[in-house]
Design a protein that fits this description.
alpha+beta, Diaminopimelate Epimerase, Chain A, domain 1, six-stranded mixed beta sheet, 35% helix
Length: 396
């Protein structure tokens, strides 16, 4: 068994220890120490990282016998060797903030809504708590967030209590005891008592901020996602910069941005409808113009054209109409999209032509008997695509 130094002092990030066991599994090496400040992955909290004798520790695991394995990509030493460990400060602080925030949010949901925490995920990008209900009114999420941050503002002390199971059973624990012997309890002020083996802040103020970001469904229960600590502040700063820039561009208060966006979406939809209607009216003119430049390639009639960045439907309609009119093949470019169409009377297969074209152009796409589409085309290169497609037609 490894003595876990963080049990009593999560602030201790440097230590010396003796290697008790070492080995190699495939291309990775491990060492078991007599004592360690490294937190191993457990209880929903990921492991610490850092160094042992200046060698990077990439993973820390706990074994069935409660020994802690420190994993690296190179040998850490032999049994009996003394090593100096240094835990990564930034990662440790991050998970101390996440785990303390989780206890606070779990306490709030338990005390305010009588909901029990079923599982916990503490991540690098976000954290989440699964509660024992399949529904939760979204409007209550804001209440829970405010209550959680009110607890941070109280700067409540966070203590580690090591007590006998009988003594722990007398405490107002949020979670039921499942272990015997000595129990490690995390106490937050006088409001939260919970058996826990993770690392936590010294006070609620160190968490800095909690943001409940949303609710999802999992296994028939709700999953509340949240940000805490530095990542919550970084998220706020990023969103502030974006909303400030948009407010300047739209010359409005940030609270008016949703209305502005809805208005722009409505206008864009109306414009797309108008453009589609105009395109339909212009289709016969475009067909005549493009068909007028028809040429013979091998045994087939072929026409091509570039209609700029318009909607895909217009490009397809034009290519198909031209192909039928000239009873051959048509290639239409619309921005980064190429449309290949063939007449049903031509004996050609658009999908097969496209496959051969892709091999020569390096582009990707496909289709059926009379029409195919290709993505990734470059503006201004229609002449090159026409030349490649002409070579494909010549081979038919």
């Amino acid at each position: 068994m490894t003595e876990r130094l963080y049990y009593n002092d999560p602030n201790q990030l440097e230590f010396e220890a003796t290697i008790r066991e070492s080995g190699q599994v495939e291309d990775r090496f491990f060492a078991v120490l007599d004592r360690s400040a490294f937190y191993p992955t457990s209880g929903g909290q990921p492991h610490d990282t850092g160094q042992l004798n200046n060698i990077d520790i990439v993973e820390v695991t706990v074994e069935d016998d409660e020994s802690v394995r420190h994993w690296s990509n190179s040998a850490l030493g032999e049994p009996g060797d003394t090593v100096r460990g240094v835990v990564d400060t930034t990662r440790r602080r991050h998970f101390r903030q996440q785990h303390t925030a989780q206890h606070i949010v779990s306490h709030v949901f338990h005390s305010m809504y009588s909901l029990r925490t079923m599982s916990v995920h503490l991540g690098e990008e976000y954290s989440a708590i699964e509660f024992n209900t399949d529904t939760f009114p979204p409007e209550k999420l804001k209440q829970a967030e405010k209550a959680s941050n009110d607890i941070l503002a109280q700067n409540l002390p966070i203590e580690i209590l090591i007590v006998a199971a009988a003594e722990a059973a007398c405490l107002p624990l949020r979670k039921e005891l499942t272990r015997t012997g000595k129990i490690r309890v995390i106490r937050i002020g006088d409001i939260e008592y919970s058996p826990c083996g993770g690392t936590h802040c010294n006070s609620t103020a160190e968490v800095r901020a909690i943001k409940l970001t949303g609710i999802e469904k999992i296994r028939g229960r709700i999953l509340v996602k949240f940000l805490a600590g530095e990542i919550a502040l970084e998220d706020y700063f990023g969103r502030y910069e974006v909303t400030s820039e948009l407010s300047r561009k739209f010359t409005c208060h940030f609270s008016d941005l949703p209305e502005k966006v809805i208005s722009l979406q409505t206008n864009a939809s109306e414009l797309r409808q108008e453009v589609a209607a105009l395109g339909k009216e212009l289709l016969p003119v475009r067909v005549e113009s493009m068909a007028g430049s028809v040429r013979t390639v091998g045994k087939y009639q072929f026409a091509s054209g570039d209609i700029g960045s318009t909607d895909a439907k217009s490009a397809v309609q034009l290519a198909q109409a031209v192909a039928e009119k000239i009873e051959g093949a048509a290639l239409v470019q619309s921005g980064g999209r190429l449309v290949i169409a063939v007449s049903s009377q031509s004996g050609l297969h658009a999908g097969k032509l496209t496959s051969k074209f892709n091999q020569r152009s390096g582009l990707k796409g496909g289709g059926g008997q009379t029409m195919a589409q290709i993505g990734g085309a470059e503006d201004g290169k229609l002449s090159q695509y026409v030349e490649l497609f002409s070579s494909v037609l010549n081979d038919e």
